[in-house]
Each structure stands twice: as structure tokens, then as C-alpha cells.
Amino acid sequence: MFKRGLPFYASISYTIMSVIYLSQQGYDDLKAELQQLKSVDRLNIINQIAEARDKGDLSENAEYDAAKEAQGLLEARIARLENDIANARVLDKTELDTSTVHLLTKVTIKNTANGMEMTYAIVSESEADLASKKISVTSPIGKGLLGKAIGETADIQAPNGIVHFEIIDIQPF
Question: How far is CA 156 from CA 2, 84, 97, 107, in A?
Fold first, then answer.
């Protein structure tokens, strides 16, 4: 899998991503995670590799293999976060238009079939967290709600058919 004559990292390709729009909180969270990975987690993995290496023969050392794999995953995550931060643009909440649903708006919707109301924040993919009621702008619901105004209905394709949501309220996030 490695290209002949090149170090292993020369064969790794990184996808250059387009601009990522974030809230200030989302940007700060990415920076904090990157700092944690670089300053704490990277050192822990280096120590794990050193301990496994001290145990002898590396060809049959499962601990060493696991630590090297963890190191590869960590370095990939660090590279992705660095790329995301480099391409991030923080949106100013005070300048957001709330006449329609878009990134960094909080929208209250009502399922027209059962009358259930839900409130979600529309955020970037990296900030999405359903438990915190933050849905990605690229999710099916996020895409379906984009551009809708209060009183309009969004028709969202779900696994069990089309679900109709009425836009009740739009607020800045």
C-alpha cells in the first residue's frame, strides 16, 4: 500500500474541505479538542508505544500494534481538526437574518400529523449533536427546513415516508 521509495506519510491523501461555518462556541470547542489531542492524548499514546516496545519482540506484540493503530487514528483526527479550523469561518450571530431558516438559527417546528412541537438549532456538521437538539444543516431535516419562513411547511423524506413540518418560530441561535 505504500508508494515505493516514499515515507509512509507521503502516501496519505487529505481531502481539502470547503469553508465550514461555525458559531463561536463551535469554533472554540474544535480548538479545545485539538489542544487536548495534541497535548494530552498524543503523549499518552507515545507512552503506550514505548511501554509496548520495551516488552520485546515487536512482530508478535499485540499491544504495540494496537498502540500504533491508535496513534494513526489520533493523527488522522488531529489532521482533520487542523483542516476544519483552517477552513472555519465564525458567523456573527448579531448579523443573522431570522426571516427564514438557515445556519445558526433555532427553529420550532410542528409535525402536522401528530401536532408534536420540537425546537432545533441548525448548525454545521461538526457541531451537530441530537441530544443537545442541534441538527446538521446537511441532515435531511436540516436541508428540508433551509429557506423556509414562519408558517411554511417543510416536507421531509423519512424512512417511513414523507413527514410534514410546519415552521412555528425562528430565532437566532
Answer: 44, 29, 23, 15
Phi and psi at residue 165, in whole multiples of 5°? -120, 130
Q: Strand 153-158 to strand 161-172: parallel, antiparallel, or no bridges (unpaired)?
A: antiparallel
Which residues is 129 bridged to in the sheet? 134
105-155: per-residue pLDDT in tens? 999 999 999 999 999 999 988 888 889 999 999 999 999 999 999 999 999
Residue 82, all three cell numbers: 487542523
Cα gap 91→89, rounded to integer Å: 6
pLDDT at 11 over 60: no
Residues 156, 115, single domain; the answer is yes
Cβ atoms of residues 125 and 138 within 8 Å: yes
Q: Are residues 99 and 60 in the same domain?
A: no
Q: Which of 71, 90, 109 is the last residue of a domain?
A: 90
Q: State the CB neighbour count (10 A cutoff) for residue 78.
A: 16
128: region left, alpha or beta (phi > 0 left; psi from -120 to 50 alpha): beta
Amino acid 17: pLDDT: 55
pLDDT band per the 50, 70, 90 thresholds, residue 14? very low
CB distance 48 to 41 below 8 Å: no
Kindly state whether residue 1 falls inside one of the protein's structural domains: no
pTM here is: 0.67
